[in-house]
Amino acid sequence: MNFTKGVELLSLCNDKKLRICDVMVEREMVLANSSKEEIIDKISISLEIMKNSIEKGLTEDIKSVSGLIGGDAKKISIRSKSEKPVCGNLMSKAISYSMAVLEVNAAMGKIVAAPTAGSSGILPATLICLAEEFSLTDEQLVEGILTASAIGMIISRNATVAGAEGGCQAETGSAAAMAAAAVVELMGGTPEAALHAAATCIKNVLGLVCDPIAGLVEAPCEKRNAIGVANALISAEMALAGVESIIPFDEVVDTMLRVGRSLPFELRESALGGLAATPTGLRIKKEILG
Amino acid sequence: MIGPSSSHTAGACKLGKVAYKLAKGDIKKVVFMLHGSFAKTYRGHGTDKALLGGILGFDADDERIKYSFELAKKEELLFQFEEADLGDVHPNTVKILIEKNDGVKMAIIGSSIGGGNIKIIEIDGVELEFTGEYPTLIVPHRDMPGVIAKTTAILSQYEINIAFMRVYRYNKGNNAFMIIETDSPICTDVIGHIKSVDNVINAYLVTIN
Lengths: 290, 209
Fold this sequence. Notes:
The complex is a heterodimer.
Chain A (H helix, E strand, L loop, with lengths): L5 H11 L3 H12 L4 H24 L12 H11 L5 H19 L15 H13 L3 H21 L4 H4 L1 H19 L4 H14 L16 H20 L8 H14 L16 H11 L1
Helix pairs in contact in A: 2-7, 3-5, 3-7, 4-5, 5-6, 5-11, 6-7, 6-9, 6-11, 7-9, 9-10, 9-11, 10-11, 10-12
Chain B lengths: L5 H17 L6 E7 H10 L1 H9 L12 H7 L3 E6 L8 E8 L5 E10 L2 E7 L2 E5 L5 E7 L4 H11 L4 E8 L5 E8 L5 H8 L8 E3 L3
Parallel strand pairs in B: 1-2
Antiparallel strand pairs in B: 1-3, 3-4, 4-5, 5-6, 7-9, 7-10, 8-9
Helix pairs in contact in B: 1-3
């Protein structure tokens, strides 16, 4: 029960009438030589860390190591209690949750890389919000993480999830793709629909550069995690309604790698280009790093 | 893991940890030569703290990484960071130069390839490749007939399946080593047994997960 491409995953799902998360758990059982319970226990630990990082970011006074970010997640959460959120409750919550995790990350706190630390807000925020909105259980969330990890595994196998290699598309694009596929399966969508959602997410941010100010995983990373949850939810909504990605998932993943390779070094996590090279970006760098 | 970057923090810590394991924790001085994105962003990402944390034997989820500079100083470990051009390698690559207490020097080159995953690409001038995803046995030996057969026979006795295996040598008949990645854990008995094989110089295990 192994696969390296989206098409292989789909044929496994279709042949055995399984969901992506079921295929993934069987794959892990073989590769890690573990029982289903052991796999689920391991993922449950990650789920707990995800929840804690959201909680911490929303309740504690977080300041990043450099002092550049912190407290933004709280602001959104506070406003949503007194005003009607412009983009609805679910989206508003998802945004603040994703930013909470990024703030904890930037403060050198404990998070789950999903698939990376710089994109670690997207999957937990999307899943936990969905759980609150639709009363999903932890068991279901573990399934969601399994679905997401199948997508993340295919991307890292065939392309990259490193900003230094593929830019931000490879980080927040991959995270959104993982989250979107999880949402589709949790909401009863087919494995095909989950891959359409994942493909759509990557397409939506194709070419997005990685240009962190002063080289810190803080700005613009935090806000790009917020747009990542929106990307995941929008793409899942489309896929659940039967909207398909015209370009198949595997081809989109290959495209992401090719586009990433053609990004210059300055725009791949080197802090030499993009927003990092603006007058303000350079001033902040000087203030922080001297 | 501990933030802020899986490539630059978690991956970096794992690279340091592999070097720590290869040096058996006996490190007097370490120099980190940082290439590409590592070189440009290491301070911001805490790559320096993470690499040093790994050298101190910490795992990527150890909250002490934040304080690794202070902890290294307390242990009187000398450390230094330099920017370097290591050639045509992954943008997140580091060369780790180690001096052990007995004066022995080691050089390890590894890349952090995303999501906290790593790849060791050179040890002491020999190009090789392993990821640390599997229990990895490194066996320096003399390049003589039968050494490999005897070593793998021991693994088979203990019913350990080899997932990947490569053999490297400096010169014909001289020093060589095997890198064996296995599916199941390797206990100290097995290592002791392999060490007793004729022409095997040493055997040690690198696991990072």
